[in-house]
Amino acid sequence: MGWTVADIPSQEGRIALVTGANIGLGLETVRALAMKGATVLMACRSHSKAESARSALLEQGLTGLDLIDLDLADLDNVGPAAETVQRRYGQLDLLINNAGVMAPPYQRSRQGHELQFGVNHLGHMALTQALLPLLKQDGRVVTVTSGAQYFGRIRWHDLAWQENYDRFGAYSQSKLANVMFALELDARLKRSGSGIRSLAAHPGMARTNLQRSNLTAESNQLEHLAVKLFDPLLQSASMGALPQLHAATASSAASGDHFGPDRLGGLRGHPTRCRVAPAARDSSQRERLWSVSEELIQA
Ligand SMILES: NC(=O)c1ccc[n+]([C@@H]2O[C@H](COP(=O)([O-])OP(=O)(O)OC[C@H]3O[C@@H](n4cnc5c(N)ncnc54)[C@H](OP(=O)(O)O)[C@@H]3O)[C@@H](O)[C@H]2O)c1
After folding, report:
1. Whether the CB of 22 sits within 6 Å of ligand 1
2. Which of 116, 121, 164, 251 would be 177's cystine partner, CB 3.0–4.6 Å?
3. What is the whole-number distance in angstroms between the Cα of residue 101 and the centre of ligand 1?
4. What residue ranges of the chain have pLDDT lower than 50?
């Protein structure tokens, strides 16, 4: 029997922040952590969606749920969100960088970055940097990536996809950036002697809003067909959330680890350690991405 929510140790007294917490894997992550006694800060871009997700969890008897307004498509939101956490709690045990957007038509974030790179990577990097001073020494940062990392390439000459925008290419780039960020953060934390762990996790393929939301007016018949064909392979959102929950709570999960499902080539199953994309193992590429991203965040 693989690792399940039942294996999560007590989270009593711990404070966790989960981005994209109103639906999908984020919601399942909140549910599991709250069930185990954590106080969970649901960081969401839509206050009303967050409020209804919280109400549903409260009706199920869960407690300790708070809301933080955070639209990662606008880096100016990150500072105020971190200040709210500082003011209300003063500290944090867990940060789960879960929110994500997949394959939308070309859009830019408020600061002009391609939306997926802006939300999935830059927004989470900025949030992590803002919250790091609040993280306890035995705290963890878990960044959610995807199997798309294995197809990803960092488009160094045009990170914003100003030319030849490819919806899935840009998604893969952002998910490769997620795992590169998690590993580079791990390296930097270790060098500084910090006890904080940085880990990455991917859910395989899980039935959430992500597949539906990426079917747009630009989607061709093949994409619609692919979504239908893959549907039977999708696991539930609660199974998909297990790798990030394992990274966040298992005592055996070490900084720099990367978890994904253990079956069907990482598409389904229970959490296991798995390899990251080759580009993420290259420390010079990671350092380059870190400094370019810092410049973009600070611009
Ligand atoms: N499901 C899968 O098979 C799969 C596979 C690989 C990786 N992943 C990764 O898993 C993570 C969770 O995805 P999911 O499957 O649970 O998708 P989902 O059901 O679509 O949930 C995505 C969450 O991210 C939030 N979000 C989107 N843009 C945001 C922004 N600008 N600021 C703040 N929050 C924002 C969404 O908010 P709204 O509800 O307001 O839109 C929602 O809460 C993502 O990082 C995704 O890349 C999922």
Report:
1. yes
2. 121
3. 5
4. none
Pair 32, 12: CB distance under 8 Å: no
User: Crossing angle of helices 47-59/24-35, nearest 10°?
Assistant: 40
CATH topology of domain 10-298: Rossmann fold (3.40.50)
Which helix (H) or strand (E) segment holds residue 27: the answer is helix 24-35
Radius of gyration, CA atoms only, the chain: 18
The contacts of residue 295 (CB under 8 Å, 6+ apart) are: none
Q: How far from 197 is each of 23, 187, 250, CA to CA, in Å? A: 26, 10, 12
* Spans of all domains in the chain: 10-298
Q: Is 146 in the pocket of ligand 1 (CB under 6 A)?
A: yes
The pLDDT of residue 224 is 78
| pLDDT reported for residue 217 | 60
Q: Is the CB of 194 under 6 A from ligand 1?
A: no
| Residue pLDDT, tens place only, 24-50 | 999 999 999 999 999 999 999 999 999
Report CA(295)–ligand 1 centroid distance (Å): 25
Q: At what angle do helices 167-191 and 124-131 cross, to 10 degrees?
A: 20
What distance in angstroms lies between residue 191's CA and the mean position of ligand 1's atoms? 31
